[in-house]
Amino acid sequence: MTLETIREGDQVPPMSWSIDTTQLVKFAGVAEDFSRQHWDQPYMASLGFPSVIVHGWLTLTHMCQAVTAWLPPEEATILDYDARHRRPTFPGLLTCGGHVTACVQEEGRRILSLELWAKNESGEITTSGTMRVALEQ
Amino acid sequence: MTALAALIEKLRPRIGVTTEPIRIEVERGAIVRFALYTGETNPVFFDEERAKLTRYGGIVAPPCFLSWFLKGIVPDKVFDFDLALPTVLHSDDVVRLGAPIRPGDVITAVGALTDVFERQGRKGPMLFQSADVNLTNQGGAFVGMIRTISVLF
Predict the structure, then answer these.
(1) Where are the alpha helices (DSSP H) in chain B?
(2) Fewest CB atoms within 10 Å of the CB: A58, A123, B73, B127?
(3) Chain B interface disruption, residue of A57, A87, A133, most B CBs within 10 A
(4) What ipTM was estimated for this complex?
């Protein structure tokens, strides 16, 4: 693939991660986010949740990684992104992907608009979002 | 007035009030650990020697490293989680990225509550709080803006 050939409708190749509580503890450490919903199983059970919840920013990190694996930072600059966490993401298999919704020329650069998603192991979309990426020339 | 409407009335006067600027030095290890523990595979995020050969000329922070600057600002100084609503979840994020964040940068972060509102969810009425955090580096360059929304019920 060369970046010049990317067109509207092209897929962000999906990537998967197996998320367990070890990953959540690691992320809590590096993000310095020690909220109990990400590590305290009895606390989450007391609130009626089946397990601890994956950090929204960890899900978002993996959504960004699906993009940067496809459009490496040497050749593409992420301008902005957004995400809506539609339902809690629980530990398990997480798959992230998306597609190109628009491709425009702006100030001498090609700007791609992407729609992104993260799905749990049942295939439900837990988080959806958009991103704009500038292709460097 | 419902209980949630009363809470919204209580929080509304805080909308737009900015926090004192907080200066945070970004150590190389903070970026490298964030990259490695989240499974980044591109050396531009963790390997100085190889990052030097890229257009960035050295290590830069991965795109979601911005979330690291929320600590100590949004949960402690902007959002009110002491509202007798036991469940707190992350609802939305909007991020704009500016200059890359590099080891040694001193980032100034300023936060503010931007909205408080109620929405009907699967589990009944829910209270949403929205915050903006603006980040600039030691040279005054814009490095990012994060809007993050939390939901309580």
Answers:
(1) 3-11, 28-37, 48-51
(2) A123
(3) A57
(4) 0.95
